[in-house]
Amino acid sequence: MKKILYIIFTVFFTVIIFTGCQDRTSLTAPSSPNPKSGSADFTRYVSIGNSITAGYQSGALFQSGQIYAYGNLIAQQTGSPTFEEPLISDPGIGGRMKVASISPFAISVDPSSGTPLNLSYPAPYNNLGVPGATVYDVLNATSSKTCASYLFGGSANIFFDIILRGAGSQFAQTKLLHPTFVTIWIGANDVLGYATSGGVSPSSPTATPTFQFLYNQMADSIASLGAKVVVANVPDVTSIPFFNTVGPMMALETPWSALKGLGVVGLVYEKHGEYVGTGVADSTALLTGQVLITLTGSSYAGLLGKPTGQFYRDNHYPALPPGIDTTKPFGFHPQNPWPDALILDASEIQTAQASTQAFNATISTLASAHGWGLVDIYSIFNQMRANDFQGGTMVNGIDFFTTYVSGGLFTLDGVHPTAQAQGIIANAFLSVINQKFGSNYSMINVSTLPNSLILAKKSTLLSKYPYFENGSFKNLLF
To answer: What backbone torsions phi and psi does residue 455 show, to the nearest 5 degrees?
Structure first.
């Protein structure tokens, strides 16, 4: 192919301001509210969960993102007297992604690392969200080598060491705090790892019976503490920008009509378990999401049609897999197909969505059985995505979309929410708290929160990002 394929999207801006460590502790509350309202009591509040709970943004955990974690926002709105977080100095830990260039749009990963700021805090943190945590980990993980990712996949997760500090699991430390109120949002990582790896690793989501057993065990344990509880269910992970950015742009930018004369009818890809590709996705399938290209695939989209083995070199294959011939045009030939690790085909999408629905049925049943509030994040996110085609979702005068970067909801990793999206999530929890417990806590004015990109003045500019400089999208932790 003579034409290099670039993945494009529209970004509206003339001035882009990147927010730093802005400590807006008051946010929308001019004075501290009473932590007790209705039958809710936020005197001792604990937030349990994964990376979204932790305040993870753009591939890293860092202080100027953590302060906008939904749990911290809830604590401020409810007047909780103490809400300690495991703060990490900027640029954080994990590999923080930053915009390296506006036009062409390119992302780099900061090679430096932050350090924990309050490891010596003499009690458990109130925000116990651990990036990468699964349902198994809430009761069982106490360190980087007792978490599910290590026990079942051999991958140690240092965030367990940083946040739990060897003092017990998330549940054990919650118990030590004698909480009066607990929020729990866990379960996304039980399917996310499968999805972000293109259905490659792990080989499948957590089995539904296993999820049911573990969530029930966790729910019974939390219930024994006597605190008021609100839980959130699992979003449709296949609907986030990580999966819905690259495929449609490939459909729009590739000259499929011209390629038909060369016998190319669509993207030739590997189905799970094969090397020589038998899957074919035409432009319609790419545009409508019948197959999903991961955001990682943006690094290889510009190589379509070229005789290259760049994917195998980048991923340190000791030799080419059987049947692969990198002298063939990449992505357009069965012997040099688009890799399985960069795509979710129809069956893999169905697997992820079916698991999510089964998990959410379990969460709903157990929340009802224990008299807990339930935040239907699944429906909220899906409705916001549907609203993209109706002019977006307006919140406090801002139109939000689920699109990558320009939509305002997701940070640069295409998975984790911006500070403003964290405010939307916090409001969803507060709304359920008020309804369930007869409280009257005020909602957050989302427009007072910073975003990853602040658009000072709108003007249409078409930007392109052919690759992500110096970095990758590995280790994205919900």
So the answer is: -95, 105
Range of the domain at 67: 7-243+348-465
- Amino acid in the structure at residue 307: P
Instruction: At 252, list the tokens.
Output: 């729009």
Q: How many CB atoms lie within 10 A of CB 204?
A: 12
pLDDT, tens only, 339-351: 999 999 999 999 9
Token pair, residue 128, equals: 């116990």
Measuring CA to CA, how many Å separate 381 from each of 235, 247, 355, 402? 7, 20, 17, 9
432 falls in which pLDDT band (50, 70, 90)?
very high
Extended beta strands in 92-194, E state: 97-101, 106-109, 181-185
Q: In terms of Cα–Cα distance, which of 2, 23, 28 is closest to 443? A: 28
Task: Name the token pair of 411.
Answer: 């940070």
Question: Which one has a higher pLDDT value, 355 or 469?
Answer: 355
Task: Please provide the DSSP assignment of 400-464 as one string.
Answer: EBSSTTTTBSB-TTSSSB-HHHHHHHHHHHHHHHHHHHT--PPPP-GGGS--SSEESS--EEEEE
Beta bridge partners of 464: 8
Q: For residue 210, what are the contacts with CB-CB under 8 A and spacing of at least 6?
A: none
CATH code of 239's domain? 3.40.50.1110
pLDDT (tens digit per residue) in 28-59 = 444 568 999 999 999 999 999 999 999 999 99
Is the N-terminal amide bond of 91 cis, ω within 30° of 0? yes
Place of tokens 């409280």: 439
Query: Could you give the CA distance from residue 315 to residue 145 in angstroms, rounded to a whole number?
Result: 25
Residues 217 and 360 in one domain: yes
